[in-house]
Amino acid sequence: MKKIFVCTLLTALLAAVPAFAQKSYTNGIDPNYPPFAYVDEKTGKPAGFDVDSMDWIAKTMGFEIVHKPMAWDGIIPALIGKQIDMVCSGMSITPERAKMVNFSTPYWTVMRVYAVPSNSTLTKDNILAQKIQLGVQRGTSEANAMKQEQQAKKYPFELRFYDSAPLAIADLLNGRIQAALMDELPADDAISKGRDIKKINSHFKPDQFGVAIRKEDKELEALVNEGYRRLMADPYWVELQKKYLSK
């Protein structure tokens, strides 16, 4: 009888103790933005500099992270609508976006460039004045900036919009467009994979990348900022750069 009583009492006590539940967050990523974020063709799983960075931060700061590939032009509405909890996927910090969401401390700076075929005669000085087809990824800061500048300065080129930088590069190599505006590292990634293109520096200023978070999620913002502070002080930060950004 004593054994039954002790077991019953122990079960009741354990039931009264709240179970530890590790917080879980969902990170929205661009499914085709190498080397920062993409879905690996071999494994079918999210990969990239930002994915590995956030995995390390989640493990270090004590939360779970799930990476959710989604269309880039709808990613901020998805964040605001609570379909995801953050965007760690090579997102440029812009005044327009900062009105809608908060950003972490910047963690990377990247140049914008034009990708053109290796035999192209286009130059930095004449590319905007040509009647060419210019590709950009829809929903990006460079797409919005170029569209506004074209309207203001009456540039003669035709803007064509793509779901990703690699798709723009594919049309570039097929002759459907003559140039594509993008961040430098996706262009570098294409060159490292043997794509017959070259880079032309653009007139745009460098972009800073940050993690987008809902304005009310102050706890998550603090977690991410502290996570990046620790990551940048750890040897793994250099390993990530060598793995993804030094090709």
Kindly estimate the percentage of residues that lie in beta strands according to DSSP. Answer: 15-25%
> What's the N-to-C terminus distance?
71 Å
CATH class of the largest domain: Alpha Beta
Average of pLDDT: 91
**Secondary-structure content class:** alpha+beta
The fold-level CATH name of the largest domain is D-Maltodextrin-Binding Protein, domain 2
CATH superfamily of the largest domain: Periplasmic binding protein-like II
Query: Any idea what the radius of gyration is?
Result: 22 Å
Largest β-sheet summary: 5 strands, mixed
Number of domains: 2
Number of strands: 15
Strand order of the largest sheet: 11-10-12-9-13
**Named CATH architecture of the largest domain:** 3-Layer(aba) Sandwich
Task: Give an overview of the whole structure.
- It is a single chain.
- With 247 residues, the protein is α+β, with helices and mostly antiparallel strands.
- It has two domains: 127 residues, D-Maltodextrin-Binding Protein, domain 2 (3-Layer(aba) Sandwich); 94 residues, Periplasmic binding protein-like II (D-Maltodextrin-Binding Protein, domain 2).
- Strands 11-10-12-9-13 form a five-stranded mixed sheet, sandwiched between helices. It has a three-stranded antiparallel sheet with strand order 2-3-4, with helices on one face.
- It is globular, with a radius of gyration of 22 Å.
- The N terminus is likely disordered.
Fill in the keyword field for this structure.
2 domains, single chain, 247 residues, 5-stranded mixed beta sheet, alpha+beta, D-Maltodextrin-Binding Protein, domain 2, 9 helices, 3-stranded antiparallel beta sheet
